[in-house]
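Action item from last week, closing it out:
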Amino acid sequence: MGSVSLNVASSRRGGRRLACLCSPALLNLLVLLSLLSTNLLALLAFLSPRAHPVPAATANLSTSSSSAAAISAQVAAIAREIDATRLVPHRAAGDGGGTTLPPELLLFLSPHALPLGRDARTGLTHMPASVAHACFRSPSTLALLAAFATYAPYAACPRNATLPHRLISKACEPLPRRRCLSRGPRTALPSSNMGVDSRRWVKPRHDHEFLIDDVLRLAAGAGKIRIGFDVAGGAANFAARMRERRVTVFTTVLDNAGKPMNEFVAARGLFPLLLSPAHRFPFYDGVFDLVHVGTTALAEGGSPALGQAGTEEALEFFMFDVDRVLRAGGLLWIDSYMCHSDERRQVLVSLISRFGYKKLKWVMGEKAGTGSAKAAMYFSAVLQKPARG
């Protein structure tokens, strides 16, 4: 067998050479040991927990999955809680001592099976009905709801035109759907009995009443006023005046003392919306160029339900919903709001200041014919919504 000679130069200066004679068997042993040690270190590095960094995409996917699972669990828990507390009393009917709900109402309130079966995320197999929990808050409201839902299916609806207004006045909205055929319009009342006013907002009468043309000129720099929303507009006089200026206005209308206000407004070629000011507006965010509110809207919108005393919290919910449906640069017209107390006026003024609206018009005046120290005050303003974020 031969030998291998390894010559290593120590430096450039040409020092002595180091010669080492190694046998092939020893060299093979050294190579084998180096391979074994390298593989062993690689194995240890692979098995180490710190050697497995989770890719960012995998980590995000895991986090999203866990978040979705948590949300699904919460939704399922809420649904079980609603069913457990019997806010929808489909299981409590006929148990004695209470109002017996009609079969049609029970059918509407019963949870309906999901068309594709059990939902994998929420675990739900049925979807509860959408109905206001305030409908079941008191026995009197529940009795009205039972009367509203008492009818013969597929036949003509009973003549209970005042029931929807009475239920909505008790915050029972939205109302349940019915499977009956609507009747024809009620006997129309003459315009003289419906509160028609063709002069307001057109000719000046009081300092706290603004004219429509003046308000529209204020909006010239913020875009054209094309669509508006009038809360608690009564006979829709405001919408009629705005239509003459080619502005479409939706009006929330409730029948007053049995008068068919919704049918009367529709007969004028205007759009009535059966909705109380205490209800969330069924519109998308920022769709209106103008929102018009008056005394009735602020008084009823600031109450948990019609006929109840107003609260600061309820007024905040109402004003925030008004702000939601008004576009940036749009106008909020507070029209002749009558403040019966200075405290109520300060609450409203303080609330308005939180929104950061630009004051285009701002007028406060004492109600005519009151000379007392605590006289009622009229408050009118035209405010422009700022652009946020």
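Closing note: The longest helix spans residues 56-85.
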